[in-house]
Amino acid sequence: MPTALILGCSHAAGAQMHLEPGFDTKDYSPVQETEYGALYSYPVLLAEMLGYTAHNHAVSGGSNDAMFRIYAEQSQTYDLIIACWTGRDRGEVLHDTHNYWIPINAGGISLTQQQSNNVLKQGINVGLPIKDKEIYKEYGKQWLNFEINDQRTFNNKIKNIMSLNMLAQHNGTKVINLESFGGFYPPEFSYPTGIFWPTDNMDDEFINFCTRNNFSKEPGGHYFRPAHQAYAEYIKQKVDQLNFL
Q1: Where does 3-241 sit in CATH, by number?
Q2: I need a surface site. Which of 25, 45, 89, 232 has the fewest CB within 10 A?
Q3: What is the pLDDT of residue 110?
Q4: Can you tell me the distance from the alpha carbon of 180 to that of 200, in angstroms, rounded to the nearest whole number?
């Protein structure tokens, strides 16, 4: 069966999906709760609807920088990439002691260590604090300030999108580009025709789609499985209409 590489942030990771009212977690460990969301996030469901086995490399709190880096690091060859682009006021920094990439943004930083996981391939939080967490937290606040660095963050997101798509084209791999939130639309910016977007307006971003269809979410802003299912079906129709695959 052909394979799909899933890239994105917490929405692509299916974060907090297990908090849906009525969801019975008694038979789930904390790790399995995280895995549940990663198995039923909208890009994973979309990949399966299109006939691909999904490999979920999304990162909660992740950035567009991380998306490009993760793809560039892959030794496995994939048949499709589903890139769920995220906010531009984000980045990542390599932790000197723990030797892994920490998601950062103007609102803070991930302060817990990661452990490897077979479902969410980039690992999951285990709740243990990182060494020198306050230093990294302050760095995250200062490094990416959306208001101060507006043009730089704009350019950085475009750079990552273009780089990932050009590298994928070089490798002969197709890419479905989607926006979880925070996208760019004409006349602000137009991507080359060779970069495939099944959506073309802000209303079709994942969060905006869920908002206008009144799907429920947990307090942190993450949506539950019905929203992911509906959005995957919506994008599948668009991909089919455009005869992309």
Answers
A1: 3.40.50
A2: 25
A3: 67
A4: 13
